[in-house]
Design a protein that fits this description.
Layout (H helix, E strand, L loop, with lengths): L4 H29 L4 H28 L5 H20 L5 H32 L5
Helix pairs in contact: 1-2, 1-4, 2-3, 3-4
Length: about 130
C-alpha cells in the first residue's frame, strides 16, 4: 500500500527530527568537554527540550492517523521523557555533575526511545503495508 502524502511527510519529518535530536545531544556533549559557557549549554538543552516536544507531537499525530494500538503507552513515555528532561534542565548549573547527569539522561532516553520504541512504530507501519 502506498503511503499517502500526509503520512509520508510526517514520517520524513520524524526522521529529520531524529537526526537533529542526535546532533543537539552531540553538541551538548562537545560543549561540556570543551568547557563552553554555561549559557550556551543551557540554550542547547532548551533547544533539545523544544525539539523533543515537537518530535513527540509529530509522532503522536502519525500514530493517531494510523490508529496505532500502542498510542496511549507511547504518549505516556513521551510525557515521562519530557518531564525528566525538564527536571534535568531546571537543576542545570555550571558544574560537571549536573552536566554529566543531563548527558547521561539524554543518552538513555534518546537512544532507548529511538532504537526501541520508534523501531516498534516503524515495524508497525511496515507490517500494515505502508511503503515510503
Amino acid at each position: 500500500m502506498k503511503m499517502d502524502g500526509r503520512l509520508q511527510l510526517l514520517q520524513e519529518e520524524i526522521g529529520l527530527q531524529h537526526a537533529n535530536l542526535v546532533a543537539i545531544a552531540e553538541n551538548i556533549k562537545l560543549s561540556i568537554s570543551e568547557d563552553i559557557k554555561h549559557s550556551y549549554v543551557y540554550a542547547l538543552a532548551m533547544r533539545l527540550l523544544n525539539l523533543a516536544e515537537l518530535h513527540f507531537a509529530t509522532e503522536e499525530e502519525l500514530m493517531k492517523i494510523i490508529q496505532y494500538k500502542g498510542l496511549n503507552e507511547h504518549c505516556l513515555a513521551h510525557k515521562t521523557i519530557v518531564l525528566a528532561l525538564r527536571e534535568k534542565i531546571t537543576v542545570l548549573t555550571p558544574d560537571m555533575e549536573t552536566y554529566y547527569d543531563l548527558v547521561s539522561s539524554v543518552n538513555d532516553w534518546l537512544i532507548e526511545h529511538m532504537q526501541q520504541e520508534d523501531k516498534v512504530l516503524t515495524e508497525h507501519l511496515d507490517s500494515c503495508g505502508y511503503k515510503r
